[in-house]
From TrEMBL:
Family statement drawn from the similarity comment of this UniProt entry: Belongs to the threonine aldolase family.
UniProt keyword annotation of Nucleus present: no
Protein name from the UniProt record: Threonine aldolase
Pfam hit, one: Beta_elim_lyase
Cofactor: pyridoxal 5'-phosphate
Ranges of residues in domain Aromatic amino acid beta-eliminating lyase/threonine aldolase: 50-298
Domain of life: Bacteria
Disordered as annotated region, ranges: 1-23
Transmembrane annotation, as ranges: none
GO biological process per UniProt: glycine biosynthetic process; L-threonine catabolic process
Amino acid sequence: MTTRARDQRHRPYGADPEDRGRHAAALRGAERVLSRPSADRTTGESLAALTAAAAEVHDPDDGVDVYGDGVVAVLEERVAGLLGKEAAAFFPTGTMAQQVALRCWAGRTGDATVALHPLAHPEVHGQSAFGALSGLRTVHPTHERRLPTADEVHEHPEPFGTLMLELPLREAGFVLPSWQELVDVVAAARERDAVVHFDGARLWECVTHFGRPLDEIASLADSVYVSFYKSLDGLGGAVLAGPESLIAEATVWRHRYGGRVFQQYPTALSALIGIDRELPRLPAYVAHARVVAEALRKGLHTVGVPYARVHPEVPMTHQFQVWLPRSAGELNEATVRQAEETGTALFRRWIAGPVPDLAYTEVTVAAAGLDWSADEVHDALVDFVRRLPPHA
């Protein structure tokens, strides 16, 4: 699939700006949702929330950051400690952080080939940036909709300098290996003299599945990237953590890539707030996501939607997919109508699948969804399905 085709497939709205605006307004105005991402807020609401909570995580009388000192340095130290790494560097985006990390590892290993899954974020959403900007080449140990196994890594016919593992693998349904499988695949990479990098944009939410603390999970990798807006409700930003020498080199490349930003205190403050508020709640979100997924699975069976699927049946994080045999346009219209007419938005945005009349949505269960009972999920699903046109 071409990059353009992938971008079209992942575009959640139609081409009409009016449709996009109506969809966004319906989600923002819904009174009942399973999650309330920061992107649903108005500018005023976001500023008010940040101002109200900032003093809880940082001295408001401290000067603003300048080129990465102050609160940004505090955040770097905090995340390095959480992940058990020697050092960390803040980046404006995860895309830049991973470009820099893998470029640095390529220079150190002498091998610019990166082994990763074809559904990994850089391959699906990266606009061929690895090759275009960093001179990196990618190979795929597996094409299965899961992380590669130790055997697949060990037996891959081409050499590679870095194994990159996205935890969880979003496009495959936010899936994870077992702890032992992860340990084994890392060991297989080491046997090939490859370094290991974790794309941990959502690593925060993996603790429940692995049954291990963050630092033990991160200890398996030579470097780890984490995001602050995907699980922690921050405004944006990312951190790359690893050995002190790697991070020192990464800060040089960060400047070269245009990531040495004059002031970033709002983003850094929101990240610290997320670490304090959202990180401790993630296990509860994961537990309730399993309740919601089971209610959806049973409800779809009850209302008799053919070929519908909740994937995975038991979520491994607080996010999972729902697949339905309808076009994305029909499903998005039903989503908007349900939100506008009932004040409830069970789903958010539907994405066209690989074949006509098949689409999926990503379900996230966060604080706003904790008070939904299984019966309420079922009733909202029945109401949603009633809004779909008859299946041809």
